[in-house]
Amino acid sequence: MAESLPEHERILQEIESTDPACVGPTLRSVYDDQPNAHHEFMEKLDVCIRNHDREIEKMCNFHHQGFVDAITELLKVRADAEKLKVQVTDTNRRLQDAGKEVIAQTEEIIRCRIQQRNITTVVEKLQLCLPVLEMYSKLKEQMNMKRYYSALKTMEQLENMYLPRVSQYRFCQIMIENLPKLREEIKEISVSDLKDFLESIRKHSDKIGETAMKQAQQQKTFNTALQKQNNVNYGRNMYIINGRVPESKYEITSKQTLEEEDEHEEEILTAHDLVDFSPVYRCLHIYSVLGDGETFENYYRKQRRKQARLVLQPQSNMHETVEGYRRYFSQIVGFFVVEDHILHVTQGLVTRVYTDELWNMALSKIIAVLRTHSSYCTDPDLVLELKNLIVVFADTLQGYGFPVNRLFDLLFEIRDQYNETLLKKWAVLFRDIFEADNYSPIPVANEEEYKIVISKFPFQDPELDKQSFPKKLPMSQSVPQIYIQVKEFIYASLKFSESLHRSSTEIDDMLRKSTNLLLTRTLSSCLQNLIKKPHIGLTELVQIIINTTHLEQACKYLEDFITNITNISQETVHTARLYGLSTFKDARHAAEGEIYTKLNQKIDEFIQLADYDWTMLEPDGRASGYLMDLINFLRSTFQVFTHLPGKVAQTACMSACQHLSTSLMQMLLDSELKQISMGAVQQFNLDVIQCELFASSEPVPGFQGDTLQLAFIDLRQLLDLFMVWDWSTYLADYGQPTSKYLRVNPSTALTLLEKMKDNSKKNNIFAQFRKNDRDKQKLIETVVKQLRSLVNGMSQHT
After folding, report:
1. For strand 442-444 and strand 471-473, is the pairing parallel, antiparallel, or unpaired?
2. What is the pLDDT of residues 596-623, one digit of tens each?
3. Which residues are bridge partners to 472 per DSSP?
4. CB atoms within 10 A of CB 258
């Protein structure tokens, strides 16, 4: 009990000092302590309340007088307060009446101030929006004026600087949504412009290339003229007339040329003048600004590769005219001039590696195309113009930094084609010259005509010079013409060698090789064909041999001619020699062989006219008419051979006599001839005697002794054997070196004897009744048997 009292006091203190909202836990502790504890707490609480009441009563009693005094004072003030209230009310009323106007003005001021604040806010916002709208308007204006690069820059400024400041407005959102569309539109427009540009340069590439090639050619001409002018200035002796240095004719011409070049250069347009490159610049800048430069580069290169393939594709009939080649080269040059221009004025759109790769691809295609189409060219003038175009083409592109060595290597291949076309052309010229020639010595009536011929052909003959006019030169008209055409061929071949950047030694070697081809193949073939032609007779063949002799002698002058052109001495180790000597020797040999053949053919024609009566009993007493005509022909023919070299005439004469002897022998031994009488043999002997007389008359000088008569020795011994009927001597001496009938073959004698044996049987039916005839018949049979044994012995020995 004693313990609970301090606890109740503590609880009461907490209740007094604690916030009324928190009294619950304190009161709960009263009921939680002990049973019936709340009764004690209540008692304690009543005690506490009575104590507080006593204290309040004491305090009221202490302040009661003061309270009474205050109430009294308050009552006094109440009357005054009423008066004051009435005054205040009246004053308030009057003040309210007076303040109504002020309130109205104040409200108006407030409203104006609000408007002013709103206007200020609007102005501030408009100041932020106006630059955006101005920039967007500027963007639209730039789009309309097709200033797309500037438009993209404006877009960048809008996005980065202006739109972020006013992004909360709807119109800004619309702008933001429109900007990508505008970019795509600019892309499409720029690509369209680029396509138009690509189409434009495709159409103008030939004009661009033509202009570039013309500039390169004029520059080369200018440099060449300037170099030659300098050489003339240094090379000639300087002398002064009337105080001035005279100008050479060449210098005046060079100055005129240079002045003309200057005039032309003013008119020539560059690639930049012919084509507007702004679309490609613009497109490049646009894609660069859009951060898509690589895509543009790939697209541009892809399209240009396609155009390159189209440009490199030639027309099927390009080889027919030089204009076809010129257009082809101009397009290619124009293409690469544009690429070179793009390379130097843009950053990264075209690189040197890319252009080199494109050029190597194009160069391979160009070389293949030129190889194919040049092979179709049959006109040397067209091939020469093609070569000049290739040189200008190569020089032009070399000036732009493209390697062109392979083109000059190709020119060496085309040079062979050019030489082939030249050879074909000159083959026609040679044939025309040979066809037009009369194959007779050139007549000259006076000194003037003689000098004209000498000016065309290097002919020297002291003996002929001593003769008076009129006189004849030994060669025919074709010789100086052939010589002139060979020189023209050398000039034509030299034209191709110009501007090939080759040394004089190489040019000299090329000229000599091509001239050798002309001599050894073309001229040789023409001579061989000429010699084989049926209408070329013996007189013409003789003249051809004389002509080839003089042409052979002129070869050294052709070598000097080439030396003067190239300034390369013939003594140089690597200098080739002309093979004209062998060419003309071969032609001469062929002509000589043809002479022998035609002589033999003519002899055969005369022999075909022979009409022997092989059964005649007695000879006519004179030689056959056909043989006398043949001998007269041979005699007149060999007189024409006086201008031939001695050995040729002698060989021809010996060949003719041998062929005549062989033909006469074959006539006797012809298998179709069955019977021969002794009278026919005697008549045949008369013809052989005429042949021997012709041989002994020395129709061609130079034979020693009876050399020519030996051609008929076989016939002579055979006829002597039958005429003398000296069979005993023949059979006894057969096989002996000293035999009188050494050249008589047993088979030949047997064949002829059998023909005579058959004739004897036919003509002497009653020979058996005459003793002499019977003895002769027996002798013939005996000789036949012996000859057969000799022939059989020879065959067994063989």
Report:
1. antiparallel
2. 888 888 888 888 988 888 888 888 888 8
3. 443
4. 15
